[in-house]
Amino acid sequence: MLYKGIENRQELFSLLKELAVDYRKRTRRHGKAELILIGGSSVLAAYSFRSSTSDVDALISGDSELLEAAHSVAFSHDLAPEWLNDDFKKTDSYTPNIIQYSQYIRTLANCVQIRSVTAGYLVAMKLHSFRSYKHDLSDVIGVVAEEREKGNILTFEAVSKCTQDLYGPQAQLSPDAASFLRNLLAIQDLGPFYKTIVSEEKDAHQKLVELSKSEPRKIKLASKSELQTLLKAPKK
User: Which of 75, 98, 169, 177 could be stapled to 173 by a disulfide with Cβ–Cβ 3.0 to 4.6 Å?
Assistant: First the structure.
């Protein structure tokens, strides 16, 4: 079955509010839960350049009624059953320090608190992941560009500090991620660069889809670095 994605910020918070109302009913107004938005959902919640997300990645603090409410919302809106998930915790970008450096956004239905990571930490996490076949690179450009418009200039040093806050005092950006960040920070008009990276990400994603069909087991078992190597290889 082909499930729909979440098209914009308004729909994201509408779904989260419906989730909170359902959860409140199930717990007879006694439940308390917390969602820390990360990844695409945190970008969609705070920035206008990202038009959609396939699911809501979050650190979830709540009981079974919250997941029951999420399944109910999924059924009502033709969303994937796992539209709200914490699969991010299985990736190398996860760190429990996200909780400490998250920021309060709002409380829905007096029972579900919504938090998210701020710009510097979001960029640090995206660069730590640094996948050419996802939205990591374009999201970094979009965040940097919109923060500039607000008068908040992200610097290499600030992002490096956020990286160390999240992943430890010795943590550093990979050479590729560091080079990418220095390059984009030196560009005045990020619009053309953003379009170029989006196009490259789409091509990489399409190549990954094709490889998944021809070599499904190889792709399923491949590490992130192995996938990057496969995507850089010329087509046979």
Answer: 177
